[in-house]
Structure formats: structure tokens, C-alpha cells
Amino acid sequence: MKKLINDPGDVVTEALAGMALAHPDLRVDAANRIVYRRAAPVRGKVGLVSGGGSGHEPLHGGFVGHGMLDAACPGEVFTSPVPDQVVEATKGVDGGAGVLHIVKNYTGDVLNFQMAAELCAEEGVRVASVLVDDDVAVTDSLHTAGRRGTGATVFAEKIAGALAEAGAPLAEVAKAGEEVVARSRSFGVALTPCTVPAAGRPTFELGPGEVELGIGIHGEPGRARAAAAPARELARVAMNAVHADMPLSGDVLVMVNGMGGTPLAELYIVFAEVAAFLREKGATPARSLVGDYVTSLDMQGFSVTVCRLTGDLTALWDAPVATPALRWGR
Amino acid sequence: MKKLINDPGDVVTEALAGMALAHPDLRVDAANRIVYRRAAPVRGKVGLVSGGGSGHEPLHGGFVGHGMLDAACPGEVFTSPVPDQVVEATKGVDGGAGVLHIVKNYTGDVLNFQMAAELCAEEGVRVASVLVDDDVAVTDSLHTAGRRGTGATVFAEKIAGALAEAGAPLAEVAKAGEEVVARSRSFGVALTPCTVPAAGRPTFELGPGEVELGIGIHGEPGRARAAAAPARELARVAMNAVHADMPLSGDVLVMVNGMGGTPLAELYIVFAEVAAFLREKGATPARSLVGDYVTSLDMQGFSVTVCRLTGDLTALWDAPVATPALRWGR
């Protein structure tokens, strides 16, 4: 294993230190491992908190800032954040209008955010939660009861964040997040495994001529091991899986996401195939993201996430955002 | 070789098709392989054109847009663009105030941009050029007479682009680009080789316990093959090489750039070490970029580029920019 790290045990702490130095708009609580928007808590605004295992950068710390998250709680690599951490972040971003938790559907995350929400409620902080479970590849898995949460997390954080920034009340912000999840589906494909620093070896084996269809963001198995194939075929497998679960039509927001080790040019090639697929089905890729947003360390591969837009959701997507990984209009 | 491509011969064309679909602010001339800013030519504004081999995405197409490049000319992977392509782009962005070519110092790029500039001059288009040669690792190399051009290209494109956007004349825009280059130095480290799609195998061999110090962005050899080491030591090798060539002091703009296959969290770890080094030397990392900006396909590793800022350069860096890969203030 060759990685740009010092000690495997220090990866999360040292990466947070680098983030703090690189982004003056963020404030990092190193002791509690929380990335805050510098302005937090914003008085009268619903606070947004997300979090989960590290190793998926820029998720979640890279989405903290104006128009998106108020705080992110990174756990150890591929490990849930602890309840105390989430409690601290929730209290830290409560500007009096309550706090929304955006939680990816993994058993540990769900339990720890739930426990944190209960502890916060006891202290008088109103908390609502949105559970993201967009991955159509598998129902139940190694780390999940029900579908896994992946790329739709970015959409939910952006859209709920825009609504919170506009001053909407907690229930409305939560409802928008839920609507995004209900309208979104994802599917991922891996060309290579990833290597967790503390383990020092690949999370699974994949032959030189093989790919994993329906890969999870921690390297969990998907639907099938298959022979490597051209990008257009892999894109089609992913889009057929999405379309079979949620027929695509009208304007859609589509993300072609890199798993961390995939060159950007390859993601654009996949995006061209995805856009062609959408048009065949009578859908329009009205908004898009192409790049690394929800990664799995150094894994090569991609995932595609599609959200069926409404006029309201489109306007919220277009609203200004200023975070390390997503920025426009400011 | 597993890659998200269809045919190795179609990589550049299909990636450009994806870019065009993903970024409505760009206009792609597929036949000539040119990425234009949609508004080009901007009347009365100096046009900026850059280009070079593909495989370094987001460089250069990802830097086309308001406040940066007017056009980018991608060659085949790791291959210079041809003179006709550059001529077409240059004429296409000439708004009557002349055009600046920003050229990385590789023999093929230099020759082809020079030939293009001469052909343009014959047609009455005024062209000036800035040659980027910031890599301190080696003098002369496989593809270069003199130092190689790497990360400072991004700085020159951004700062000259801001000045052009502000309406400055060609000579002044060129001078700013030259000033950036004179004040910038880079050094790169590879943990793995990269694989050119058409070749189908790694560009060089690197043992499981080895790194290449001073790597070039096409996998060219650097200064030394060394044993893999912690991030803090590798960061220090890079920064010592930069500091030995150009003593660092005052405010600096620093980029910790990923080679394409490196997780973002690792780049933040390197950035923390780089920032510590700068402070030790009495310099301040006043502005920074951490992420993939000048890649080498799927190579794992990083490069660091430092520019000694002035007040003027800082203001130009901070000016609004709206491109796929760099965006703020709009």
C-alpha cells in the first residue's frame, strides 16, 4: 500500500487540519472532528448537519458552506460518526429554528444519528431527519437494512440547504429533502477495489478483466461480477437499473460521479452515454454534475445518480452555493 | 487495462462530447477539437488560448470560461495539438484586441503554437505568447528543452484571464502571465505510473515500495527513484526543491494538485505539511487550491506549485471566474 499519509490512525485528523488551512470559510473543531461553516450558527436559519464515514471526500466536509451544510461529522474511514459528535455539531449549528440531519442509510449511521437526535431533543433542540436510500443495486446489504444511501445525498444537501438559506421552516426543509430522495436513484460500477489505510490491502479482489456492477461505496458487493466492457455498455447497465426502478421522463438532474481514482475524461465519456440514454427515454439532462463527489478512496469506477426535477427543485438547485466542492452564484 | 472508454482512438472526441453536454456555458467544435467559451469572441477583449496533450484534465478545457480561457485546444492523449487547430481557435477568440497563447514548455507544444502564431500573424491577428516552465525537478527532459511546464499554467491562465476580462491590452496581459511564471515553481511526486489508453500498459514501472521524485506529467522520469515515505517527508522533498530554487517568503499562492488517482483526503494531508513548511520559512499560504487540476490520467501522486504573490496578483487571483473546474464570485 502506497498512500500520501503519515500514520493510518491519523488520516482523518490530518486531512481535517489540511481542510481547515485550505478553506478560511470553514471552521474545524479538531477535538470533536466537526467541520463547521464559519458563520454557524446562523440565527433564525434551520441548521443542516450531515456526516458519515470518511473516505468519501468531498462528501461531507466539502459540502459545508453557504447554501448547503452548516456542519459535517466525519467518522473514521468507512466508520460512522459517534453520537456525541453529532450532538455537538447539532447544538453548534442550531440558530433557534431547529436542525435537519441528512443521513445515508447505513445501519451505524442511522443508529448514531437517531441517538444523537434523541439526546438533542432532551436538551430542547428540535431535530428532523432525512434518510437517503437511493442506491437501486441491492436491497439490504452488508452494512444496510434497505437500500444504501449514495449520490442523492449531494442533491438532498444542496436542495434542502438552499431552502434553509431562504428561511424556510424545519418541516418544509425536511420535506424538500425527502422529496429529493423519493425522486432520486443511483447505481455504481467498480473497475478496481479500494484500500482502507488501516487495513493496508484492497477491500476485495477484482480480476484484470472484471468489473463489479452495483458496487457499494465501501466496496460492498453489488448485483453481479461481470466481464469488463466498453463505457457505453457499463453506462447502459447503470441507467437501465435506474430506469427499471424509476421510469425516467421530463427534466432530470444527473450526476456522473467518480469513485476517486477515475480520470475526469472517462467520466465525461460516461456522461455522454448517460445523456444519450436519457434522451432515448424522453428525459432531458437539464442539470448535471460530472466529477468526484462521493468517492470510495482510490477506487476506479463511477456511479450515476438521477433526480426527476420539478420547477421548485430546479430553482433550489440553481440557488447560490459556496462550499469547497460545489460553488456557483457567489 | 480497465478504463471507462469505448475505443482508445475515440477518447478525446467522446470526452469532448461529454463536456459539451455537461457545460452549457461552453461551445465545443468537435471537428476541430476546440473548447470555446460560449461568448467568444468577446469584442474588445484580449482572447486567451491554451492547449496541450489530453490526459491532464481538467487542464485545459476545464479552465475555459469567464475570467480565464476563451478557448482550449486538446491534442491526443499526451500529444501536442496541431498548428491548424490552434490557428482556428486563435481566430475564433479574436475580438479585435489580439490573442494570448499560454503554452507549457514541451517541444511539440512550443513548435506548434509558434507555427500557429506565425500563421495568425500573416492573417492579421496579433498574437503574444507566455511560456510556462515552472517545474524545478529537471532541466531538459524526454520532451523538453529547459524546464517543463506544469501547475503554474493554472495560475497564469487565471491571472492573465482576469486581467483580460478587466479590459487590459495584450502586452499587459502577456506581461502578467510572464510575471506569474517568473514567480512560480513546481515539483511532483508519483506513487504509481499512469496508463495511456492507446498503449494499454503503464508508462513506466514503479515497485510496490518505490516513489518517483520529480515526476513529469507524462510519467517522465524525475530526479530520483526513492523508497516510499510518509506524506510529510514527500511534501518536504517537494518543498525543499522549490525553496532551493526560489526562496519562499511573504504571501504565496499554493496549489497541492492530485495526479488523477489520489484521494482528496490525502491531498489535504499533503497540504497541511506544505503549509507548515511555508510557515517555517516565514511565508504565508495566503491563497490555495487543493484538488485535481493538472492530472496525469490515473496516476497516483501529487505536485505542489507555489507562486510568490504581489498585491496586484492577489487581486487578479481573487477576481470572479466561472469555468467548469474553477469558479468563484459568479
From TrEMBL, chains A, B:
It holds the Pfam family Dak1. GO terms for molecular function: glycerone kinase activity. The keyword Transferase applies. InterPro entries: DhaK_1, DhaK_dom, Dihydroxyacetone_Kinase. Its EC number is 2.7.1.-. Residues 7-328 form the DhaK domain. The keyword Kinase applies. Keywords: Kinase, Transferase. It comes from the Bacteria. One of its GO terms (cellular component) is cytosol. GO terms for biological process: glycerol catabolic process. This is Dihydroxyacetone kinase-like protein. It comes from Sphaerisporangium krabiense. The lineage of its organism: Bacteria, Bacillati, Actinomycetota, Actinomycetes, Streptosporangiales.
